[in-house]
Amino acid sequence: MPPEIIKGLKDVYFDTTESSFIDGIEGKLLYRGYNIHDLAEKSTFEEVVYLLLYGDLPNKKQLADFDSLLRANRIIPDDVIQVIDLVKTGHPMDVLRTAISALGSFDPEVTDNSVEATIRKGIRLTAMGPTIVAAHHRLRQGLEPVAPNPDLNHAGNFLYMLFDELPNQETTDLLDVDFILHAEHGPNASAFAARVTASTVSDLHSAVTTGVGTLKGPAHGGAAEEVMKMALDIGNPENAAEYASNLLDNGDRIMGFGHRVYRAEDPRARHLRDRSKVLGEKSGHPEWFQILQHLEENTMQPYRSKGICVNVDFFAGSIYYLLGIPDDLFISIFALGRIPGWTLQCVEQYKDNILLRPLTEYIGEMDLEYTPIESRS
Ligand code: CMC
Q1: Residues 210 and 241 in one domain
Q2: Protein residue with least CA distance to atom 12, ligand 1
Q3: Which of 12, 23, 27, 302 has the highest CB neighbour count under 10 A?
Q4: Which of 86, 70, 201, 81 lies closest to 147 in space, CA to CA?
């Protein structure tokens, strides 16, 4: 009997989890039992990171201490700045991957895979991630990196280091929500890849490096960048229908639609849709939201019945674009939000570890005779 092949490991359960609950049919997402809608509307990224890593919401003192810890760990070693400088012509995700890998050489607990040390390392990586991305963006423009500002929260400090300018509250809040929405999402491709690395009893820096490399692809974290490129190509809401039909007729996909798990709308998309609309109107550029809205409500409407709906990436790009963030940084922002999720997935893997090692059915030739190279035609 040939083995049953489950391509793409679709619908395969490989473990239990207490991290996040996803109901793809209902379009529901919970982090540690809390609904993503409540977290997006009422929480902060700092609080969500605490929730993910420690399993419960913090009280006031716990949150204040945790926030101070994040703020205190933002500085990256000068040697890592030099590494970033050396590879600065690369894509920001390649640079982030290299810098996180390099940070492993400077972390005193790199080889300690205990749950406690892994959480401490995850906190440090969460805190340092924005410093890497911002330092790279400055260095590639020939500018000096901006030192972290301990008076600003996680999102605000990232924007400050990126633009060397104090961000306003509205912009900071937008990025804060965006980080919350990206913080954790079960064993998606990058988290699963990170877990495979952790399952060999390798360390968190290696696992997060794996996660960054896996997130980079357009089928995963790269979609937001592709959506905005598409919107810019379309240029005007009137052109949207024809442009999208041509893509679909050619067998191409509309980026920002579809999901391996969700058959209903990705619950994270709602928060970015609303904010993309408001930001577009306020900044005098409603056209990008109008283009996206047109695609969602017209071209892609028939696809809803097939379970292909907007995902978290569809409206994210338009927000970043309107905030003046270059399009090749969009995936990095996803990665910065996801570091706590990768950490949590690795903690769960370490807690009850088994080597992740599936099988492929061999369908090639068997027992061929080896011919010496001189005798081959
Ligand atoms: N546009 C048009 N058709 C699509 C799309 C799309 N965006 N996504 C899926 N389909 C079709 C696909 O062509 C296939 O049709 P058929 O059965 O006729 O061949 C069917 O839907 C099933 O597609 P699939 O690739 O087998 O489904 P999957 O579960 O493996 O793919 C996906 C999930 C995210 C890779 C896919 O929907 C896709 O490529 N979407 C565009 C990229 C994107 O937006 N990625 C971000 C995902 S959300 C952020 C994250 O967590 O990574």
Answers
A1: no
A2: 253
A3: 27
A4: 81
